Amino acid sequence: MKPPIPASWGAKPPLCPHLQRPPSRGFSLVELLTSLAIFSIVLVAMGEMVGAVLNQLRIGEARFSQFQESQAAFDSITRRLSTCELNPYYDFQYPGSPPDTSAVPTRYDLESDLHFVSGPATSGPNALLSAGSHPGHAIFFHGTFGLTDNPAWSELGTLLNSWGYYLEFGDDDGQRAGFLNAGSTSPRRHRFRLKELQVPAEALRTYAAGLNNQTSAAGLYSWFRTAAAAGHSHTLAENVVALVVSPLSPVPETATTEKETGIAPTYFYDTRAYQHAATSIALMQRTRHQLPPMLRVTLVALDEPSAQRLAEESGSAMPNLHPSGIFQDATKFDADLEQFESALTDRNLRFRTFSTTIRLRNARWNELP
């Protein structure tokens, strides 16, 4: 039998004060409520931030989809214009008016069977389109684009076509099914639209118009006016509210008074202006059957919400977005564009401007005085 252990031996030594476990205690009710309140505020703030970001994302996507159509239209315009044709050649010039081809020719001069014209669509003394709601500028030309509706000609990629671009304001009756137009359940959408004139080769009437013998703007412009009225135009993009086309020429570094807009000071450019006395004699001879070396093309497009708001305000009437007097003097292009954009901003309309200067590949510029 083991002897009993002394009590002093079995006593546990005391723990060090710094190693002693503090008494356990929980959160008070006030602390829990305060934490929950702070957490709720953080959640609400984060929810509002996420909502704002998603809203801006939706707005950005809507703008991108809207302006993506305008961007594609702008790219199409610049691509077509850069390859337009005039195919000038030198031929005899005869005396008299009309020329007496039985007489002895007096000189050689440029001639062409084709035509290039740009300028204000329905305003000014040289309006290109005789009637309709066509704000801004218009441009009409020819090119070997190979467009045809005849399957037997589909492989002929260099067929000659008439082409053009202009703006039009109106409803969408021609773009939707007939049963929607017959009833009143589907409201019409009144919009500004960028129109593209495409005349297939088999419908080309340029040669039939006898352009070389015309002496009036009505006769000279019949080849594209008739085609536009015959339904050869389609909508390239909606909500385009401005189209500005400014022909430009290179300016020598030594020039002191000549400006690059000198070949089209009022934006009007006609390779057959000499046939109907549309401008000065010197300018008519300078542009006679010659493409401009460069074109500055500008589009201004609205987003769909802005266009919808305009339609609600104006109904079927064309909204007056263009301040009077703008885009008539080519030397004031920058100031006029700024004024136009300011007018849109003042009406809280969201828009985007597309502008570039393109070089016409087939231009053979002759620097005449």
Summarize the structure in short.
The protein has 8 helices and 11 strands. It is an alpha+beta fold.
Task: Please give a structural write-up.
This protein is α+β, with helices and mostly antiparallel strands and 369 residues long. It has one domain. It is 29% helix and 20% strand. It has 8 helices and 11 strands. The protein has helices at residues 7-10, 29-82, 178-182, 217-220, 222-229, 281-286, 304-314, 333-346; strands at 89-93, 107-111, 117-120, 137-143, 161-170, 191-199, 233-238, 240-248, 269-270, 294-302, 351-359. A 6-stranded antiparallel beta sheet has the order 7-6-5-4-3-9, sandwiched between helices. The chain has a 3-stranded antiparallel beta sheet with strand order 8-10-11, with helices on both faces. It is elongated. The termini are far apart.
Write the layout of secondary structure elements.
Layout: H1 7-10, H2 29-82, E1 89-93, E2 107-111, E3 117-120, E4 137-143, E5 161-170, H3 178-182, E6 191-199, H4 217-220, H5 222-229, E7 233-238, E8 240-248, E9 269-270, H6 281-286, E10 294-302, H7 304-314, H8 333-346, E11 351-359
Antiparallel strand pairs: 1-2, 3-4, 3-9, 4-5, 5-6, 6-7, 8-10, 10-11
Radius of gyration based on Cα positions:
36 Å
The end-to-end span amounts to 139 Å
Helix content: 25-40%
Query: What is the oligomer described by this structure?
Result: single chain
Order of helices and strands: HHEEEEEHEHHEEEHEHHE
